[in-house]
Amino acid sequence: MGTRLAHKVAAVTGGASGMGKATVMRYLEEGARVVMADLNEETMAQASAEALAAGYGDDVLAAVRADVSAEADVAGIVDAAVECFGRLDVMFNNAGVGGAIGPIVGTDVRDFDETFAILTRSVFLGIKHAAARMIEQGDGGVILSTASIAGRGGGAGPFAYSAAKASVINMTLNAAIEFAPHRIRVNAIDPGVIVTPLSNLSRGINQSTNSAQPWPDPGEPEDIAHLALFLASDEARFITGDHYKCDGGLLARGPRIFRPGEDGGRSMGSARVGMTYGTTGQKPVMRDRD
């Protein structure tokens, strides 16, 4: 076991699978006590069992079911950290979904709003409630959020998803300025194509993006977890107000993942539109394009 997060308490949303679960395990390995928050009770039970098998019991790990678009639930994550472990030092706003997909002209406003509620409002709520607690504690803290390379330009993700992730990046910059006097560092991570249940990509499917991604190996959840560990640690004490790519060079070359279709929409998913929910346990709601 390492000590880079010794005596620290962290909360990770979307912590039961993919990048979130990898980060939960990495934080535990480095001595943190962790609140794992997720909407999917089944994957939370599985992740908790894996942590227990690895030697991490309820003295260092707490599981909390939470809908991160609901303020009471996000506040409850912070409350759980304080109730279980006495404080909160690191908040990782990681939970997300694929959200609304399909061409802009076929996107339902309800799907658009729900995408922003899960991807953007959730980060605002995480920043708000974590920062309030950290200010009260009086000795600083770290707030991280998962953005995406899709939020840094066009062509790397669906329209609503990309816009929501761009909002995460901007909120990160502004929050860092506001909370710097309190020694609360605020940063974001911009993943590229990472093989997770949410991305619904296997190694075989991932080969379709190899022409765009210079690095020959697919991105793994642990790649994000390692970066999240560094940014949460005291080694990054002078780093705030920024967002960091972890994408195998994808954005450097130009992602070319989503391309304009002949009908003016997006080639990926242009025949059907709707809402996807990733690993939350909720089934996607799809329909044929009008």
Task: Please describe what this structure looks like.
The protein is 38% helix and 18% strand. It is an alpha/beta fold and 290 residues long. Helix 1 (18-29) packs across helix 7 and helix 3 runs parallel beside helix 4 (109-137). It is globular. The N and C termini lie far apart (55 Å).
**Low-confidence parts:** 201-208, 260-269
How many discrete domains? 1
Percent helix, as a range, is 25-40%
Strand arrangement in the largest pleated sheet: 3-2-1-4-6-7-8
The average pLDDT value, as a whole number, equals 90
CATH class: Alpha Beta
Summarize this structure as a short list of keywords or feature phrases:
290 residues; alpha/beta; Rossmann fold; 7-stranded parallel beta sheet; 3-stranded antiparallel beta sheet
Give me the secondary-structure topology.
Blueprint: E1 9-13, H1 18-29, E2 33-38, H2 41-53, E3 61-65, H3 71-85, E4 90-93, E5 99-101, H4 109-137, E6 141-146, H5 159-179, E7 184-191, H6 203-206, H7 221-232, E8 242-246, H8 250-253, E9 272-276, E10 285-288
Parallel strand pairs: 1-2, 1-4, 2-3, 4-6, 6-7, 7-8
Antiparallel strand pairs: 5-9, 9-10
Task: Give a short synopsis of this structure.
The chain is of the alpha/beta class and 290 residues long. The chain has helices spanning 18-29, 41-53, 71-85, 109-137, 159-179, 203-206, 221-232, 250-253, and strands at 9-13, 33-38, 61-65, 90-93, 99-101, 141-146, 184-191, 242-246, 272-276, 285-288.
